Amino acid sequence: MLRLALASFIVLAGCSGGSRTAAPAGAPSTTAELSPALTPLAWWLGDWDADDGDGSEHWVAAAGAIYGVSLHGRTFEVMVIDDGDGPGRPDGVLRFFAMPNGARSVEFRQRTLGEHAATFANDEHDFPKTITYQLAPGRSGLDAVLGGGKEIAYRFKRGTRVAAPELEAADLAFAADTGKRGVDGWVAAFDPKGGMMRRAGRVEYAAIAEVMKPTLSAGRLDWAPIASGKVGDLGFTVGKATFTGARPEDGWRSTYVTIWHRQPDGAWKVLFDTGRPVQEP
After folding, report:
1. Which pLDDT belongs to residue 12?
2. CA nearest 221: which of 271, 176, 170?
């Protein structure tokens, strides 16, 4: 889990306990987590299975951000939609960040927003230049179209997701060990091939301790998951975090998504972690 430390723009994580089974896509209970700018995207929330049975996408709202996780065999993609750039008040500009296999973060900005459709664009990106999601006729499914020189379409039907209590437990154990041992506890939770995404780019395993030590030495970071799921040896948690510094003004809140990888011994380790600050008034 990556929690975004406001002072250094490190993307940090958090977690909140309790297993649960996901509600159907767009369930009303999830919309309370959406900011006014993100509320028109409530139709997008939920769990979606590829029509061809190969892969799934899971979209979860958390305190002003929407996290998307695509699980496809041994690969994953993390996607984030929010309406603010860093800490502070939201600016109402919707941004879509794509991180295929946690390799990089590409930003797309809102181009069009319809009743049940949204297009994000980045004209400088090689491919895709546009990403469009829209509900299928009759709200029976979800269509995703990548555009820009060519067009690739994906079709999803409404799916279900069973919570992964073992991942929520691993997430909470990660938080407890970090609270007890600081940066050593943080690093111990990561897969040797794991990494984090921060504002400046991806942080590989070897650099995690150096990046996280200033934050974890300056206060206490607590988190807990609000959603989880898994497919095979990959899974995810989405949650909320709170940082408590020496002074009240040093505190901040964030949300996160963590990708977990099952190890040969059956334990789960962090393969990727990223998050967003909660935009405060």
Report:
1. 34
2. 176
